[in-house]
Amino acid sequence: MALRHAVLLLALAGAQDSSVVAPKLGRVRAPMLPAAVVARPEPPETPPAALLRLPAAERRVLEAAIESAVKGGDLPGAVVVVGSSRGVWFQQAFGRLAVEPVPLPMRLDAVFDLASLTKAVATAMSVSRLVQDGRVGYDQPVSRWIPSFGREDKRSITLRALLTHTSGLPAANDVRDETQGTTRAAEAIARLPLNQSGAYRYSDLGFIVLGAVVERASGQTLDQFAAREVFQPLGMTSTRFRPPRSPLLVPTTREESGFLRGTVHDPRARALGGVAGHAGLFASAGDLARLARALLLGGTLQGTRVLDRAAVDRMTRPLSAPRAKDLAAIRENAELDRDARFTLGWDSPDDPETSAMSPASYGHEGFTGTSLWIDPRRDQFVVMLSSRLHPDGRGKAVPLGREIRRLFAGAKPTRVERPVECGIDHLADAGALTGRRVAMLTHAAARDRFGRRSIDVAFEKLGSGLVRVLTPEHGLDARQVGAGRESVDAMTGLEVRSAYGSSFDAALLGVDTVLVDLVDVGARFYTYEASTFRLLEAAARRHVKVIVLDRPNPLGGEVVEGPLSAAEPPILVDPHPLPLRHGLTLGELSRLFVAERRLALELTVVPARGWARAQHFDVTRQQWFDPSPNLRSAAAAELYPGIALFETTNLSVGRGTPTPFEVLGAPWLDAEQLARSLHVPGVSIRATRFVPAAGPHRGVVCRGLRFQVTDREGFRPVQLGLSLAAALRFHHGAAWQRQHFGLLLGSASLATMVDEGTPVEVLLRRAEDDAKRFRRRRQRFLLYD
User: Fold this and answer.
1) I want to staple 781 with a disulfide (CB 3.0 to 4.6 A). Which of 139, 591, 648, 682 is the partner?
2) Which of 131-140, 251-260, 648-657 has the lowest mean pLDDT?
């Protein structure tokens, strides 16, 4: 999936629209983990060998990402553990446990300063246990346990408000207020003026008070209660406040006496003696995996129950409340006045659409570079522990955590064979290439099953026989706007020549064979298909053999959606009569084009192996590499054939935002009205606001719609596009400039019907009639069942 923007926020849980929030003191948001409640009885733990193994290609991507972070100084090392309710199916230690004063290799059982994970793992779990036992209530006032909270402005503050950061307490106070113990600290906090009560404002102080409530209600200190009621029953043997000296402890920052090691980094927790509700807990990744499994199993693990299923559900169910309004920030990002989503002590993903976690997921992160996320919908958890503050305090863990979550997102703990293999994985099947002079039409998004660029694989096999690289739109790295530039590939030393917008005839001089390996997205107007067609025509003229190294269609190969274009005359975005969504691979399209254009050409297609027509990209177990600058994920590709239709109008499709083709809007759009009027199967449509940095309305706040596919099998992107066009014509007929809408639609008559206000049902029937005709026409060119 394309890497998309994830906000470094400090506690927003589950807001479904991307938003930017000013960082709060002492917290950096990193990746999160999912937790799930599964059916009883508890399933037996499955040996890791019987569960999903990380394929070699994904393992290499993971190792390369962590190696890059280590070499870049972001962190010295990390431990990653992934699993499900049945057990751990991936765990590995990377890099170093310590860099100074003595380099030490990282260990799976290393013990990390969890920082703000303490809020969820110790405090929220302890409060939930007390609620379950009837000793406290979420909606009881804090003053019942801390009398100083009986002041007029604070008597209405409840435990729920503290757990959800909606009490109005500030984020922090003078550290000196924490030097006389938890009770005195809570009393000092009670004297502080409140911010906007009821609005979300991340607060360490609220969890310091919760630690004091646990102490008052249980008669035990927070560390004693959490250990006896949670950690020990779950077998979390390394999890504790104030850990004893051990070579397993991972250091954080340097102080005058040396590196902190086993001493909490957070200054308030340290002032409180190392035990606090907001920070101070230390643990290993394996221990957090045990906690995650227990939550996924409804509060029990290996016959020991620490919470009942209802308690887990109450604690982790997403809630919402208004965010505290910061007018300056709102001017910068208009979404700040939307609701924040969170759970009782845990976070929810800031934007499920970009986080690789489902909306049901929850978790937490720590300032030191730690994260735990649990997804009950997918029955999966992901733990990443690092010490980004070691040795110089300048590292970062958020980008790496995000990448790891994406890598593992949605993986199922079942026995799985190798991922789908593409044509490049079987280049030897292309026939004898020895002694031939070969050019290759490709880009960096085309990879083999190990994640290597196709150009590198071909160069390794063909050596000096590979003489030239040809590139489509966006160049070899798939990042340039428009045509790529002539250059030399740094890895292979090969000449790189852009063939976009120019004749292929000159590019084929001196070669007798062309390899084609491009990542297509299954829409007629995607220019890589047009580049392939023009190459085939030029190869026929010059008597050059063409070998297409095929790949799956990321949208699957079963569904076809009209309208059918006329392609008269053929233009770049309409090179041949095709439906808007054709359901063919690039190899199948090449077969169709050669036959229907009657080209005298020797064409070979090396098929993908293990792919079935019903499979979309996410089940191929391939890694997503962006094929063009604004197609950053498989989710965006699913929407692309419908949303890209509006690029020729005065609407922004999200270029210059973190999620192109997943949003659409304009300053004049009545997004709420439009969202209410649209009812398209398989996709959620919500009002949002965004500021594009490119394209129409650049730098201007756009009122718009955000789209998320909820039922991939039932979703039809062209149906969405036509429904949206009809609704725009009805609600914004004067403002929506649609005179060029038919260019990408490929049907002037259908565009005229839209302009005349034809009901969407009629538009869809017309498009389906075209699709039916093409299904019959394409049948003899199909290579896959």
Assistant:
1) 591
2) 251-260
Contact 116, 25 (CB under 8 A): no
pLDDT on residue 691 = 95
Cβ pair 339, 332 in contact under 8 A: no
Indicate the angle between helix axes 56-71 and 398-408, nearest 10 degrees.
Answer: 180
pLDDT above 90 covers what percent of the chain?
59
Question: 17, 639 in Cβ contact below 8 A?
Answer: no
Find the helix or strand (DSSP H, E) in which 206 lies: helix 204-218
pLDDT tens column, 214-245 = 999 999 999 999 999 999 999 898 999 999 98
In sequence order, what are the residues at sequence separation of 6 or more whose Cβ sits closer than 8 angstroms to the Cβ of residue 651? 664, 665, 666, 669, 696, 728, 736
Strand extents, DSSP E, 202-250: 240-241
Which pLDDT does position 522 carry in this prediction? 95
Q: Which helix (H) or strand (E) holds 190?
A: helix 182-190
For the question of whether the overall pTM of this predicted structure is more than 0.85, the answer is no
Q: Which two structure tokens, joined as six digits, stand for 431?
A: 């026939």
**DSSP conformation class of 482:** S
Q: Is 77 helix (H, G, I), strand (E, B) or coil?
A: strand
The one-letter amino acid at 49:
A
As a 3-state breakdown, the chain gives helix, strand, coil percent values, each rounded to 5, of 35, 20, 50
Distance CA 411, CA 409 (A): 6
- Cα–Cα distance between 576 and 607 in angstroms, integer? 23
Within 10 angstroms of residue 56's Cβ, the number of other Cβ atoms is 13
Write b or e for each residue in 78-95: b if 16 or more Cβ atoms lie within 10 A of its Cβ, otherwise e: bbbbbbbbbbbbbbbbbb
Please return the burial class of 218, using the count of CB atoms within 10 Å of its CB with bins 0-12, 13-18 and 19+. Answer: buried
Q: Kindly tell me if the per-residue pLDDT of 281 is higher than 60.
A: yes
Residue 202: predicted pLDDT = 87
The residue-averaged pLDDT of 85-91 equals 81
The residue behind tokens 């969504």 is: 581
Residue 757 in this model has a pLDDT that exceeds 90: yes
Sheet of 545-549, strand order:
487-488, 495-498, 466-471, 438-442, 513-517, 545-549, 603-606
Instruction: Locate 673 and state its tokens.
Output: 């009205």
Residue 159: pLDDT band (50, 70, 90) is very high
- CB-neighbour burial class of residue 164 (10 A; exposed 0-12, middle 13-18, buried 19+): buried
Model confidence band, residue 188 (pLDDT cutoffs 50, 70, 90): confident
- State the pLDDT at residue 490: 83
The residues pairing with 442 across neighbouring beta strands, listed in sequence order, are 517
Distances (CA, A) of 251 to 98, 104, 245, 270: 7, 11, 12, 15
The string of DSSP letters for 563-604 reads EEP--SS-BTTB-SS-EEE----HHHHHHHHHHHTT----EE
Task: Give CA 510 to chain center in angstroms.
Answer: 44
